[in-house]
Amino acid sequence: MIAEIIAIGSELTSGQKLDTNSQWLSLQLADLGIPVHFHTTVADDLDANIAVLQAATQRADLVLLTGGLGPTLDDLTRQALAGMAGVDLVLDKASLSFIENFFAGRGRDMPERNRIQAMFPAGSEPLPNPVGTAPGIWMEVPGGVSGKVCRVAAFPGVPSEMHRMFTEQVRPRLPGGARIIRRARINCFGVGESRAEGLLGDLTARGRDPEIGITAHEATITMRIIAHGSTEQECREKISTADRAVRERLGHYVFGVEDEELEHVLIRALRDRRETLSTAESGSGGRIAHCLTGVDDFEDAYLGGLVVPTDRAREAMLGPLPANVAEEVSEPMAHWMATACRERFGTDYALAVTQYPFMEDGQSMRDAPSAFLALATQSETIVRPISLAGNPAILRSRVAKSAMDLLRLHLRKLTPSS
Amino acid sequence: MIAEIIAIGSELTSGQKLDTNSQWLSLQLADLGIPVHFHTTVADDLDANIAVLQAATQRADLVLLTGGLGPTLDDLTRQALAGMAGVDLVLDKASLSFIENFFAGRGRDMPERNRIQAMFPAGSEPLPNPVGTAPGIWMEVPGGVSGKVCRVAAFPGVPSEMHRMFTEQVRPRLPGGARIIRRARINCFGVGESRAEGLLGDLTARGRDPEIGITAHEATITMRIIAHGSTEQECREKISTADRAVRERLGHYVFGVEDEELEHVLIRALRDRRETLSTAESGSGGRIAHCLTGVDDFEDAYLGGLVVPTDRAREAMLGPLPANVAEEVSEPMAHWMATACRERFGTDYALAVTQYPFMEDGQSMRDAPSAFLALATQSETIVRPISLAGNPAILRSRVAKSAMDLLRLHLRKLTPSS
């Protein structure tokens, strides 16, 4: 079975809008093992639409269309499908009532022009739209690569409507579409993408079920698990087996799941222990504070922070520099910043980031020297160098995450049961 | 003249990669007034490629292709163009030397498989690629809407290579392509998109030259000026006239041009005046500090800041709360935060943002009450309410910009010449 995806709209061919629907549908079909050979995007022109549909229904066995189902004059998908199949448009009473009720529910009469949305090519089947006024269309026409039949589904161009209608109504009609797909994500920090791949070994091999892929976003490494099964239960079990295997191999690098970032995990751990944190940032310019204050109910755990990128600010907020702190970018500076910050805020922990080292003109990030991170606790202050080599666009984010990870790992040591 | 854009690659039809080249090329052609009626994306399959090219060269007068010009076996654009035109591939010696030199410049021999990149359909013309090993291809074949000629240009899929080759080599060959296009951007803050449109009036009318469009990004409103002309000088004059007209109508809302944001303008103004700033943020969680520390050489102007989202942090860093400050979200709180922050850091100015008001469960951002901003100067402390109604996703950014804008406007009053 070969598929083609058609996106309809002059706003797409003119470049005013970027088509992302075709990619989304391609990924859905890839999940089912259906290869997509063509994407076609066509302007709002009836003859061009008919010609494109005729070509598609000959060279593909499945054609998915998006767009052109609205009530206005430039919405031509219904007419194009009828023209391609050589049939008339006929009124579907159930769809008409649905649309009238949709407007009635908003206290309005249905505008006359919306009536066209209840018209369907003779022999086709409406695909109800639970969230909008435009029903989709399902039809089977002579054609396809074998010359027998081509199946056609038309969706509205609004992504949320299209996603839901594909998943609920069209996917189950496709070969393999009755099978269930479930996804899960496991997030890691402190390990690179290729090292993670090495540790996972055969788990990421192509064609395995469940499939495990690795992606990176601002130094957070995410394992994406995709499980196929005939029941929800089967998928859940596959995911849980894969989850155990990933955690076994990646150990303490794993910090969370789904949308969790380090700041969520850290705030939760601190709240559970009824402990508090403050921060003193030079080079990272408040990035840690910004992350932590974005978490719901952070106030019991994160009391506040300093952005102290200058000597004057450090001395104003943390007190006079001790005699042993000479260099702006140094271990003693990180040590003092964290210790003094913890004392000033009266928190259980403090994290500090020194200024970033001065870069020579033309020096690449590859040769970049290190800044220093520090974690002050009741009993000690730990200092770690952090290399600034790597993509400058994600540098602040990576440094902030590295500092938070220092505390996360420290807390894990103290609570080995977690 | 009607155009079609073809993107080649199984990574596109499978959905693994999103095609953005077609949109970019459509926008370039729109600038020239050439309508695009079709985008086609096709997998790496020779027969499918030839069929797509045959259809395109019949229904369009100009066909732009991207992708499939690499050295590997799945790169088939050269072969497809030759197949479509019914001609052989022939070696272009100049292209071969260029590719050999490209590798020699990197101290390597040209791999044998790169030789294919110097092969071109007989009768076509190479389009040199100044930044990669894949030259493009220009050819004219029988076809087009009128049945006379269709012009075809093939580019590598790497966006930076494609952009440069289109602009330098193909654009000048197109009708209107010899005309020059220059763009400029003027950035405003403190005015909404529709109010800006109202103030600009006829300046934004469609079809005007230069064209002026309005876009919004995180509460910064940008006027985009596009001037067409036959010389650089003509474009410059048109832009400068439009720039004057925009500034006349939008007055003090205008703060910068091109990529300038409020933080750049503020740091520059403070450096020019040899004055300094500090910040105390509750609700905005360090966003102002994060913006200001992202500007080059900010250190002389922005000394540092506090992220004080809790009473404990405010008292630890700013001293005991005065008797008149009872409410966390109040004018007196903002007043005290800014005044005390300015004193603690010893700066000329301080900006403060109070906590955001507590939202009831289910209360929409539309009914949101206000937080307070304050600016402390040597002679006074100014407090302003800021409504939290609006898109929550950009709330922190808007609040941070509003605080910076308070100081920008204050500085302008003191230096009316600027």
Automatic annotation (TrEMBL), chains A, B:
Pfam families (alphabetical): CinA, CinA_KH, MoCF_biosynth
Record-linked InterPro entries: CinA, CinA-like_C, CinA_C, CinA_KH, Competence-induced_CinA, MoaB/Mog-like_dom_sf, MoaB/Mog_dom
MoaB/Mog domain span: 4-177
Top-level taxon of the source organism: Bacteria
NCBIfam families, sorted: cinA_nterm
PANTHER family: NICOTINAMIDE-NUCLEOTIDE AMIDOHYDROLASE PNCC, NMN AMIDOHYDROLASE-LIKE PROTEIN YFAY
Family: Belongs to the CinA family.
HAMAP family given in the database record: CinA_B
Name of the protein this chain belongs to: CinA-like protein
Gene source species: Maioricimonas rarisocia
Annotated gene: cinA
